[in-house]
Structure formats: C-alpha cells, structure tokens
Amino acid sequence: MGKDSFTVILGAVIRSKRKDLKASQEGFAATIDLHRTYYGAVERGERNVSIKNLLKIAEGLNCPLSKIIQETEQAFAD
Asked: Does the predicted model carry a pTM greater than 0.70?
C-alpha cells in the first residue's frame, strides 16, 4: 500500500471503522453533521480533510483520532 496517498489510506481506515459500527455512509455522515457527499469523498481519499472534521469523524467512531492517524501511518509505511 506504500504507493497509495495518505488521504486514500486514511479514508480506508475511516471506512473500515465505520463499517465495524454497521453504519451506512449517509447515516454516519448525518450523525456527525457532515454532508454525505463530503464524507464519501473523505472515505475515498478525494478530500484533504481538516483537523476539525477529523475530530468529528473520530468522535462519531468512538475512536481516538491518534489511533486513526497511527493506523494510517502504519499502513502508509507498508
């Protein structure tokens, strides 16, 4: 996965955690007060997401932002 961009890997990590919660993209986006198309673009790695929105996502996932970043960094290094 080392050739993928950081944002693509970040999106994949976020998507995996959302799916673990058995939440749809649309439902999850509504829960964290983000537009569904914006949130979908984050999961696809098409958006350079702000820290503010990353915090919203992490809170919605009940996961520390540091854990999301750590998992992303590990996958990026592979």
From this structure: yes
